[in-house]
Structure formats: structure tokens, C-alpha cells
Amino acid sequence: MTITIIPFTEGQELLDWIALTDAMKQGHTMPRAEIADSLLYRDSDTLLSRAAWIDGLGLAVKSATIFPGNPAKGKPTVNGGVSLYSDSDGTLEAIVDFHLVTKWKTAGDSLLAARVLARPDSREILIVGAGTVGRSLREAYGAAFPEAHFTVWNRTRANAEAMAAAYPGMAVADDLETAVRAADIVTSATMSTEPVLKGAWLQPGQHVDLIGAYRPDMREMDDEGLKRARLFVDSFDTTVGHIGEVKIPMEAGTIARDDLIADYYSPDTFARTSDDEITLFKNGGGAHLDLMTSRYILDAWRAAQ
């Protein structure tokens, strides 16, 4: 059997944000994924492997090598790939570029939530953080909200200006509070361990999308914001007890487990119920989403051949 190898540039040309989120939605109608992570270390170097198995969809192992010394050698810090296996016989079907899967999985996860939780008439979208993920969010949200006006805020203004220059019409915000208050959708992708967003700034009808926090010590929204909003996560299995955005306030008693209304596996309750409520979504990622994304990429690749 021929193993398909899908590199970043060639693969990306075939993909569509709306089709990806439709595939993710379909993936959540299947049995809940079995997932497992493993870490290996050599001094500061790391191998992270995240595995998922969804009955009917297949198996995936996403492996990333993190070598902090690589930039000094002119090489990227993070490298890796996703191995995608057949559900029927376990044979290796494809190896997909790590960065391709990560880009589309991360922004697609947030976009799926926004298509359900954000008001369809949202026209002002604020991106907090001008890094690689911030740029992916601009592309993803632009696909579902083509009439929206985008603003970016970043601690280092020069980085925000560079991002805005890449997307004609995008504005740069100087004051984060002012920008949050003016937005219909706030999507945040920072590396902060302390909240950068304050609940006092939130306005009725907004949708807040939190991406950056992925460790137990990280969070982007303060306690007041969590208490004012209706809370959703992509997966209870990969957020509760794992990510600081949820773990820290739960352990402090600020919010309770029952305050998390739904994850993607509960489509009937994963929904906005009024135009004036504030919805807040925690994007936790997870290997099951890597599997869904990789399967979508392989299907798109095969359809194009």
C-alpha cells in the first residue's frame, strides 16, 4: 500500500475553513475519542506524542520535537508530523506535516465554536496576539465572517503593525480595553500566564474565544469574565483538570464543573440562547481534533488527485 506524504504548502492549497469545521462537527457525532499523551526528554529537548483513536474514523499519532537550540543553527524549534492510520486494518495511510495539521486544527477548533456561539451578525472582530496563531485566526474567521472588520492588539505594537500590513483593512489597537469593548468577537492567542482580558470590559452579546493557555499555569481571562459568561469547551477530557483557564478557577471555587455548559459532544446544549448573553469558549486542542483534521486533509488530498 502506498503511503501518502502531505507537505505544508501543497496540502494547504486544497483546504477550506468551512469544510474543515463541517468535518469536525461530523467527527463529534462519532464515538468519543480515546486519547493519550506521552513526553520524552533529553535535557531541554522534548518529544511530545499525542495519540487518538475514534471508532469509525481511524487512528492518529501527532509527534512534535521541540529543540530550543535549533534557532541558533538556523533551524525551526518545533518539527514533527502526524501519522494517520486506517480504522479498518491499522495500516499507515498518510504522514501529514505537523505545522499544517496544527494550523488548521487550532484555528478550525475556534471557528467551529464561533459559527455556533457568536452572533451571525458579528462585524467587529478583535484578535489579541499577533503571532502565527493570530494570523491563522484572521484567515479562519474571515472565511465565516466575510463582512467583518478586523483589529489586532499585541503587547509589541510593531508585531501588530506587521500583521495588519499583511491583511489590507485590518486596524491596530493601541488600548486593549477600548478594543475589547468595541468588538463583537474577541479571539485571544497569547502565551500569558496571567489574565490579559478583564470581565469588566465585556459587553452583552459578545463571543470570547480563548486559545493561548495550554498549560496548567496559563490563563487569558480573569475570574470576573468567567463568571459573567456562559462557558463552553471543545472537550471536557482535554480541558478540565489540565488547562489553567479552567483548572485554576475551579480549584479556587470561582467556577464549578457544572458551570461548563457543554463540549462539542453535546450539540443540543452547545448553543447561544439569546442575542445579549456573553459566550466564552475555551479552545483546548487535543489529539482527537488532530485526527479529525488529518482525516479531512487526507480526504481533500485524495479528492484533488
Provide a short characterization of the protein structure.
The chain has ten helices and 14 strands.
Description:
With 305 residues, the protein is α/β, with parallel strands linked by helices. The protein has two domains: 4-102 and 288-304, 2-Layer Sandwich (ornithine cyclodeaminase, domain 1); 118-285, Rossmann fold (3-Layer(aba) Sandwich), CATH 3.40.50. The chain contains ten helices and 14 strands. The strands form two sheets. Strands 9-8-7-10-11-14-12-13 form an eight-stranded parallel beta sheet, with helices on both faces. The two termini are 17 Å apart. Pfam families: OCD_Mu_crystall. It comes from Sediminimonas qiaohouensis. InterPro entries: NAD(P)-bd_dom_sf, ODC_Mu_crystall, ODC_N. This is Ornithine cyclodeaminase.
Largest beta sheet: strand ordering: 9-8-7-10-11-14-12-13
Q: Quick one: how many beta strands?
A: 14
Domain count, please report it: 2
**CATH homologous superfamily (4th level) name of the largest domain:** NAD(P)-binding Rossmann-like Domain
- The backbone outline, from C-alpha atoms, is globular
Any idea of the CATH topology of the largest domain? Rossmann fold
Protein name: Ornithine cyclodeaminase
Organism: Sediminimonas qiaohouensis
Pfam family, one: OCD_Mu_crystall
